[in-house]
Amino acid sequence: MRVQCTYNQEYEIFLKAVVDYVIERWGDELDLSGAETIELVDISEFNYETDGKVYNEGKNILVTSRLYDELDVLDINKCKNSNTFKLIVSTLYHEMGHVSDWKKMPNLYSIAAENPTSAEGIASLFWLEYIAEKRNAEKNLVDHDSFCTDVAKSEWRAYKTEFGKAGSDNFTYLCKVLPYFMGRTIDPQKRKKYMEIMKNRLVKEFVIEVDKEIRKLEKKSPFDEPEKLQGLYDIINIFFNKFSDVFSCSYSCFFT
Questions:
Q1: Over the range 160-184, which residues count as b (16 or more CB within 10 Å of their CB) and which as e?
Q2: What is the value of pTM for the model shown?
Q3: CB-based contacts of 196: which residues, under 8 Å, 6+ apart?
Q4: To 10 degrees, the CA torsion angle through 150, 98, 119, 114?
Q5: Over its length of 256 residues, how does the chain's per-residue pLDDT go in tens digits?
């Protein structure tokens, strides 16, 4: 597996140390045999905020410099207790988890990557992101209180379907955020805390219904048959229509 940063030699050296750090701690839990490269790319090359992604059928991991640029020193021994370093580790572990899962669930990943606007694609992405983020949450690497509080307190007037765009009026963005929220609140007391302050009644109902379906899916996991996610898609589509009805929008189906 090649680890590189073509524009900054110091970042490349540090990235290699971070990769070794993650593998030493949790590598035995992951199948990284399919990974070919891990590359750190300048965040300025993106027109949106992102920390990492997996592409090319799970062979390549890309992390951006956003978090690395925040570090005062590129020395694990000197920065390992900082929140920024913990976020760097969490991001890399999350993406490595996707590489590992891609080996077990190639059909679901292919559908999510190639047909993201289809019913099967959105249900697959929701499920796969939930699995990856739940794995992260179980490590207690970082505190996600701010994120979960923002999700709970947002108004979520979510009636639009704009893929790739953020916004509390965008139902597709809500579906992107929700698996992270649910993965980060697997502890019952944490979930209860945020549900009690949840501002939008429909989001609260959405979480409850999706949670019921996820519990069923977890009993079947691991699986790689997209048809098993039909129940999850049905719930997503039902709530899209509910949001549309409340906010007076004339849509009848979330995805094609």
A1: bbeeeeeeebbbbbbbbbbbbbbbb
A2: 0.91
A3: none
A4: 120
A5: 999 999 999 999 999 999 999 999 999 999 999 999 999 999 999 877 789 999 999 999 999 999 999 999 999 999 999 999 999 999 999 999 999 999 999 999 999 999 988 889 999 999 999 999 999 999 999 999 999 999 999 999 988 887 778 889 899 999 999 999 999 999 999 999 999 999 999 999 999 999 999 999 999 999 999 999 999 999 999 999 998 887 654 444 544 4
